[in-house]
Design brief:
β2, α7 and β3 form a beta-alpha-beta unit. A 3-stranded parallel β-sheet has the order 1-2-3, sandwiched between helices. The chain is globular. By secondary structure, the protein is mostly helical. It has 2 domains: 78 residues, Alpha/Beta hydrolase fold, catalytic domain (Rossmann fold), CATH 3.40.50; 98 residues, no CATH class.
């Protein structure tokens, strides 16, 4: 079972942290960019990395909250563009973990490695549940994985974004899991 497919490609990272999603949410993108000096905005992942791992807890927390707010704001298809303000310790852990992996390309050997090695699981059945309007993990990655994976059943959920809490996503996941329970 996969949900909200993200394969750590440069294109996916550029979409979300290079301004692609920001074209749909310009005011939210502007708020995400605001804590970063204009001269550093060409690489938001690197700019945030410097601040998320600065050693200054207040600076790390402030930037972690901005990082988390950007993602949270775009998680739901019904979003208003604000992501709320979660607990600072959670925001810091979440932002640092994501940013660390993104900074290092997910520790993969090359861009597109996950897609390129789908033959390794060709005989394993699986279901992909993907929101049609997922701004964080655009559906193209799920579609490409499903096309490269003969055992995949792609379930594109209409009127759904990225969040697990999206009603259509949750319902589809429950249905798939119920079906698995009946097969045994």
């Amino acid at each position: 079972m996969l949900r909200g497919v993200f394969t750590m490609t440069r294109a996916e990272l550029d979409w979300f942290y290079g301004g692609g999603a920001g074209r749909f949410w310009p005011e939210t993108w502007e708020a995400f960019q605001r804590p970063i000096p204009e001269a550093e905005r060409g690489d938001m992942i690197a700019a945030y990395h410097r601040r998320l791992f600065s050693g200054d807890l207040a600076e790390e927390t402030r930037h972690a909250r901005a990082w988390s707010a950007w993602e949270n704001a775009l998680a739901s298809v019904g979003s208003t563009g604000t992501g709320g303000d979660g607990p600072p310790d959670y925001a810091r852990a979440f932002a640092r973990l994501e940013n660390h992996y993104f900074t290092h390309g997910g520790f993969l050997d090359h861009d597109g490695q996950i897609h390129d090695q789908m033959d390794r699981i060709a005989d394993i059945p699986g279901t992909i549940v993907q929101g049609r309007y997922d701004m964080i993990c655009p559906p193209r990655a799920a579609y490409r994985i499903a096309r490269a994976w003969p055992g995949a059943d792609l379930r594109m959920v209409p009127l759904a974004g990225h969040a697990l809490s999206e009603p259509g996503i949750s319902a589809e996941l429950v249905e798939v899991m119920d079906t698995l329970g009946r097969e045994d």
